[in-house]
């Protein structure tokens, strides 16, 4: 089973807990009991991070009820819905978002707050970002960071001195940051990095005959990945998790809507160190794919 040291690199993604989400999600939104069971199972294995956001519907409130704050690090995100009407309105909305997260999560201090949109760092003359830095410096936020929507944004976030944490998307299918040296650069800069969308928002779990027409360019690499998994007797999604394990020095956020999915991920993670070498050989053969199939915002 997964050791606690390895499991501590994992985080639970919670967008599914607040709303139906994911291209391969057939279970829908889990019940509070199912979420509680997922949190308990992951916690027993040594997982101690949950990723959420103000805009994930009721996710924050559910976490506040089910995840003891002394046992879990909760990483949340500022609302993306900041009004462009004026600096005053944007500041008011940002501060209201922070207060709402504190209340929903039942915390007196947010452990980690990320801006959900990179542009909110510089928009309004940087006023919102400066206000968040002040909240961090006054103790209402422990760590401040940026959630990057794509590789270009990730590199820009890396240059922001007050961003201590950066969340990025990367996967066996989306190796743009991996191949460009981003993770090594982030480590050198002393940034904490979390990788999300390691299953490309569920594509890793999707049967090939259910692949949407707009994602047809993923068929060939997915077939190659599935063939490797079948040859080794692995679960079809496992190579994606093994690849994420091999990204040096990062936390890995996995989304799940059932206890069984969490159990499978924990089991596969425990075998990743031994199986990663086979996957990295395959990874080198996967071509660079266009943003239209790698960015779920464009699906």
Q: Can you describe this structure?
A:
The protein is of the alpha/beta class and 299 residues long. Helix content is 45%, strand content 13%. The chain has helices spanning 4-7, 15-18, 32-45, 59-66, 87-105, 119-122, 127-137, 151-158, 176-180, 182-188, 219-232, 238-245, 259-270, 272-283, 291-294; strands spanning 10-13, 49-51, 73-77, 110-115, 141-147, 165-169, 192-196, 251-255. The chain has an eight-stranded parallel barrel with strand order 1-2-3-4-5-6-7-8, surrounded by four helices. Helix 5 links the parallel strand 3 and strand 4. Helix 4 (59-66) runs parallel beside helix 5. The protein is globular. The two termini are 36 Å apart. The mean pLDDT is 93.
Based on the model shown, name its key terms.
8-stranded parallel barrel; alpha/beta; 299 residues; 45% helix; globular
Task: Give a short account of the largest sheet.
Answer: 8 strands, parallel, barrel
| Distance between the first and last residues' Cα | 36 Å
Instruction: State the secondary-structure class.
Output: alpha/beta
Radius of gyration using CA atoms only: 19 Å
What is the averaged pLDDT score? 93
Summarize the structure.
This protein is of the alpha/beta class. The chain is 45% helix and 13% strand. The chain has an eight-stranded parallel β-barrel with strand order 1-2-3-4-5-6-7-8, surrounded by four helices.
């Amino acid at each position: 089973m997964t050791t606690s040291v390895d499991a501590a690199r994992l985080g639970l993604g919670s967008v599914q807990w607040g709303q139906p989400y994911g291209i391969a999600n057939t279970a829908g939104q889990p019940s509070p009991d199912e979420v509680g069971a997922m949190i308990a199972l992951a916690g027993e294995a040594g997982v101690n991070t949950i990723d959420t956001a103000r805009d994930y519907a009721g996710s924050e409130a559910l976490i506040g009820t089910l995840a003891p704050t002394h046992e879990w690090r909760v990483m949340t995100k500022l609302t993306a819905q900041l009004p462009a009407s004026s600096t005053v309105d944007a500041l008011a909305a940002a501060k209201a978002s922070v207060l709402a997260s504190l209340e929903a999560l039942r915390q007196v201090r947010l452990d980690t707050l990320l801006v959900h949109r990179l542009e909110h760092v510089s928009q309004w003359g940087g006023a919102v970002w400066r206000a968040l830095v002040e909240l961090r410096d006054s103790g209402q936020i422990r760590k401040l960071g940026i959630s990057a929507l794509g590789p270009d944004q990730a590199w820009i976030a890396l240059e922001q001195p007050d961003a201590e944490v950066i969340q990025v998307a990367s996967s066996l299918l989306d190796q743009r940051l991996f191949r460009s040296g981003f993770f090594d650069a982030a480590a050198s800069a002393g940034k904490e990095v979390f990788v999300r969308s390691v299953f490309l928002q569920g594509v890793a779990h999707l049967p090939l005959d259910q692949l949407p027409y707009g994602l047809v360019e993923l068929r060939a690499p997915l077939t190659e990945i599935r063939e490797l998994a079948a040859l080794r007797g692995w679960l079809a999604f496992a190579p994606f998790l093994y690849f994420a394990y091999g990204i040096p020095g990062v936390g890995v956020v996995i989304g799940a809507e059932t206890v069984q999915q969490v159990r499978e991920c924990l089991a596969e993670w425990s075998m990743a160190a031994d199986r990663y070498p086979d996957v990295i050989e395959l990874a080198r053969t996967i071509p660079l794919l266009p943003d239209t199939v790698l960015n779920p915002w464009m699906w």
